[in-house]
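## retry 2 of 3
previous attempt timed out at serialization; input unchanged, resubmitting
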Amino acid sequence: MGFMERMDSLKGSVKDAAGDVMEFIDDKVDMPVIIDVKGIKEAGGAVHATSRETSKLCHSTIDKASEVVSFGMEMKDTLDGMTTDEGGGGLDASKFEIIKDLVDGDRIREATKLAGELGDLALQCVEKSQDMMEAIEHGIDTLPDIIEDRIEDKLDRTIEKGGTEGDPDLPDLERNCGELRSLVEGIEAVNLFTVMSSGKLAFDGLRSKGAVCEGMFTTIRDFAEDISQVSDAIQNFKLGMALGAMKDLVSNAWRCLRLSNLIKQFAEGVGAIIEWIVKLFKRASEKLGSIWGALARAKDVLSDCVRYVGDCIRLCDDAKDRSGELCDVSAEIRDHLGNIVTLNRESIASIKDLADGDEMKRAIQLATTIDDIVKECVMHIIETIHKVCGAIKSMPDVLTEGMNDEGEDGAPGEGGTTRTISLVIIDDDGDDEIPPENCVDVTSDIEELDGMRGDIEGVNVLKAVGKIADAFDGIHAKIGLCGDMIAESRGFADACNVSIESFGGVWDLESAQGHIRELFKIVSLGKLIRHFAREIMRLIRANIAVMKATRKKFKDIDFVPDELEDLIEDVGDGLADL
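## retry succeeded, writing output
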């Protein structure tokens, strides 16, 4: 029979029903009364059935609350175990992904769902307590007025009439909810310095408050089992008992009412605590998950960028070696030109050697190869900038707060440079043409080389000899400048490697912002490499143009013997006129 059906049966109780009457004399009532006990017995049966359902329900809630406790303990212990002894309790960056999965993975989603189910079960306990109170009140209403009047103001008097010394006090809900509220606020205000400690506090709070809920559900179950015993006595009350038994019947009714009300209070209280537990679960998952997820992504990005930076270092080394060889070749060409300028016996052979172009071809080939190498280096570094900028931009603001307002000078040892290391991240697609602050500019060098090329192209062979000698003296110096720039770029790449290793190593959480700064340094160093590489290519291409103009000028000479003789005579006449 359902609860409402059991309640409807109470309406059929007839106060003067024969066979269910007895005399009862209260210690303050000095007259016989006719008592109908059918209604109160029906109420006892309804309460008995509901109390058993509540007790069964509580077994499930206790198990679920215990799981919440275990989860909080597991999370706290796991986070404790993430730190290392190295560096005074640092955190290895390899653990970022593990922590991210802990705080924002399937496990915490299951625990959040579990807490939500606990809240639903607490509401069911409240509803069942209300059902039991209504049932026992209806049962009391069926008693004769002279007895019912003595049980008026039922709930107000339950502590006095239905309480016992062993009844537990309701836990301090204001304190418990307040502590959970503080933990939620701590998660809301979490930053890079507090992300680990806030997480530990949150999960330890979930553990402790889960234990409070477990204890409260245990108490509710005990109440329900007590009600089951008391209501069983009510539903099995029989006529013919001693007159004092009626006082026990009334006392049991009071007790049922008292215990049902306690269940309601405890269930509502545990529901309020669970509501905050669910909030804490959700905010911890969202906030902590976003931070640890961003750090894990950044680490993966840098792990991927190691090969790009490594390629840049390799390419810089290759370009540096070739620039050294180009310096040697350009010096040899300069020496040949020196012979022509002094017009000695070796002049004709020198002109022939230049005209055949072996050294010139080698010089142009070396310069072209350096240009291709540096171009490839730029491609790798652009990919690095793009990836690291993406990692930075995907981070929650709390991780990068204040970074864009900072700037710092590179310290000696950071690629051997004192170039400015900017911590301002501009859109990597929008700042492509913006040169880094305090950076190299070869515009004047290129203008100088362009002027030399123009001089060579605009004069005859005789006059060109002197111009070309000057040009190759300049080329030798400019290639040396390229070599220096390549070496400095290689230093930037080394500094990138240092920053990548720092980010991917053991973190000192008290100075964690320094690790985030490494990301900005990598971008800034990458932009320095990109800028230097482009300047190197501009300078190399200007050198190539001068070398090609020189080669063309000498290739225009027809090396037929008669013409060579005419050329020598022209040179001699020219020198005689000086």
